[in-house]
Specification:
The protein contains 6 helices and 2 strands. With 90 residues, it is mostly helical. It starts with 16 loop residues before the first helix and ends with a helix. Residues 1-90 form the FAS1 domain.
Length: 90
């Protein structure tokens, strides 16, 4: 695993481990992209969110998984305040 992505590595009992697992297992291109970016922000759903029946059903389609994963990162480093302010102003 590249050092740039090491901060995302999650313990098996961690709150976003299933998201990490999904990227690792199905998002090869995303893992590579994120690993090489200097500034990136991930929006990681919780393990519980990924266990919802509708979400689990969507995750059966590998192409759809990749499309969904691409929606969970931006190529810039965002602070929590920036995220909150942009969410409110839009």
């Amino acid at each position: 695993m590249a050092s740039g992505f090491g901060a995302v590595h999650e313990k098996e009992d961690g709150p976003v481990f299933k998201f990490y697992q999904t990227i690792r297992d199905f998002g090869d291109d995303i893992m590579s992209t994120i690993s090489h970016l200097r500034n990136v922000t991930l929006f990681a759903p919780s393990n519980e969110a990924l266990e919802e029946p509708g979400v689990r059903q969507m995750l059966q389609d590998k192409k759809r998984i990749r499309d969904i994963l691409k929606l969970h990162y931006v190529k810039e480093r965002l602070t929590l305040d920036t995220i909150k302010n942009k969410s409110v102003s839009q």
